[in-house]
């Protein structure tokens, strides 16, 4: 990123995780600016990460080469309206991590000529284990794409898509995906307690099993289907459990759930 400066509008959990991830990967804190209306929040961020802070969004926008918009979607229009003149003049790379806010929205609010990268991160980015889909609007050059990838790549894996509509699928799979796994964990903990295990043991067993299964899937050359088959002995305990899942239409329910999430993402973007 050479000596380019990166600014964050909004100092919430995702923004501070991105800043912390960049610092952990060798980006000097002096190259990072953050704005937020809460002075207490800024003091906390400054003490934790030693980045520059300001309560005025314009002060940050006037200084940086890349501007990460990390405010709630319902606040985006008013925030962009305040930034429009500075962004139109300086034309920093604008990186949006707001769900449901399209490139067309951002160009309406900021100006047609602004280079924009729209991103869909997920909450595991808070622990540097995220998965982020990115889409670069027309007018974004390779160096700006590299900068966006480095910012979002500081908290996990990044995936580029050639059309913006693909981000609706990303939202349905990885954006909402952590909640699907959390639901399975909840259900498995409840099932463990129903089988007589105490709550603390049930929770630890389930979370460690989830973590171990994910690590095994990530590090193995075999796909999840093969790993499942290796655990499943014919006529054994795992086979008995999986038969119940299959008879209940588990795969079909997952397909329907992801389709519903995508449809809602498209509605919100519209």
TrEMBL record:
Start and end residues of each Pyrroline-5-carboxylate reductase dimerisation domain: 164-268
Pfam families reported for this sequence: F420_oxidored (PF03807), P5CR_dimer (PF14748)
Reaction(s) this enzyme catalyzes, per UniProt: L-proline + NAD(+) = (S)-1-pyrroline-5-carboxylate + NADH + 2 H(+); L-proline + NADP(+) = (S)-1-pyrroline-5-carboxylate + NADPH + 2 H(+)
InterPro entries registered for this protein in UniProt: 6-PGluconate_DH-like_C_sf, NAD(P)-bd_dom_sf, P5C_Rdtase_cat_N, P5CR-like_CS, P5CR_dimer, Pyrroline-COOH_reductase
GO BP annotations listed: L-proline biosynthetic process
Transmembrane helix keyword on record: no
Cleaved signal peptide residues: none
Entry's EC annotation: 1.5.1.2
Record's subcellular location: Cytoplasm
Residue positions binding NADPH: 57
Superkingdom classification of source: Bacteria
Pathway: Amino-acid biosynthesis; L-proline biosynthesis; L-proline from L-glutamate 5-semialdehyde: step 1/1
Pyrroline-5-carboxylate reductase catalytic N-terminal domain ranges (all copies): 6-100
UniProt family annotation: Belongs to the pyrroline-5-carboxylate reductase family.
Name of the molecule in the record: Pyrroline-5-carboxylate reductase
Organism for this UniProt entry: Alcanivorax dieselolei (strain DSM 16502 / CGMCC 1.3690 / MCCC 1A00001 / B-5)
Gene: proC
